[in-house]
Structure prediction request, 448 residues.
Amino acid sequence: MPRAVSLPALSAEVARLAGPAIVQGLLHTVVLFTDRLLLGRYGADALASMQISGPLLWSVFSVLGALGAGVLAVVGRAVGAGDAERARRALSAALVFGPAVGLVVGLVGVLARHHVALWMAGPGALEPRTLAASYLGIVFAAAPLQALGAVAMTALQAAGDTRTPMRVTVASGLLNLVLSYALLFGAWGLPALGVPGSAVGTAAAFALHAVVLLVVLRRRGGAVSLRPPWRPHWPSLVPVLRISLPTLGEKLVFHAGFLLFASLVGRLGPVAMAANQGLIAIESLGFIGAAGFGVAGGALVAQKLGADRPDEAAAVGWTAAGMGVAALSLVSLLFLLVPEQLVGLVSADPQVIVLGATCLRVAAVAQPLMALADTLASSLRGAGDTKSPLAVALVGPVVVRLVACWVLAVHLELGLLGIWVGTTVDWAVRCVALVALWARGGWRVARA
Prediction:
């Protein structure tokens, strides 16, 4: 007989997992925001260069993290079913496969960095393009470490441990800030390397994050651990890859569209580039918060399905989404009340502040929509249904976003404001589609 669903109990479970994940995300956001703050104070070209390297690295590492969808679903279901051996085998294979792919991606990124920077910014922005290429070369070299840390973190979250990743993020974030500052400006006896110094700080943070999480997995007990003798179990990688491949397609589609979108911003001029980069850092307050509820929703959905409790899994998805919408509505209020002050934290340029504040008011509308879409998409992935988010990505981020941004920004000559209105339209379309998919319930029969 099915167990009765207790919404207060599920809400408490979501909050228990989402809380540390949100704190982790906010800490990551603080690091991102402070990085942009340091670069903005270093020089306008340095901040504008992040309009090239920032979106590109986010896209590449997000695509590289597609393996996490399979890790989340397989490990989460194994934990829910009490099958510790299956969880360990899947994790062991993913911890080798992920960094191997990261090595290939990093090598390609290092070799192609100048060509990609030219494509992203066009021939006019010479100094930002040169700075971006130097930053990219260093960070791409650390791609295997970034991939290793991402797999380890996802496995812990799938098991319901969001506190350990939060603590490790604190340590790596502090290292990033301290080392980036010292090497950017030349402090405490270290050389002033400028923008490449900031990249060294980021690469060092990747290394610390990966190494500490790997040590945690080797020392801990329970379902998600690496007990010696340790070796990858390759057959266990098959279900991880089967679930991850549609997510890989989703991320490739989404980020190809996003990079086209970013290249459009790059052609709007240095003021728009600097304003947009600052806006991305500010909006990450909402984006990472939505991701925190997505982590909780995806992990708990996987565990509930592994324990054969599909009704609880359905309720988890709605509960996590509702909590995310409520939280990001508060972020919307902040964007509406003090937009000039927020943009002023990342740039002292009056033109950047005026343009950024106007766009931030539009971004306020998008925040609860983003929470709803991100949380339900993560819940679908946790259930092992990665094809539905792929279909939504084909319609929303690619078709709707690109068309809307082109029409509004270029055809109607709204510039950067048109870009942000277009992205809000995209989030609204995705919300409608994902709510319908979760309500229909086809994810209940997905394999993991």
Notes: The chain has one domain: 7-445. The chain has a mean pLDDT of 84. The chain has 15 helices and no strands. Residues 84-121 form the longest helix (38 residues).
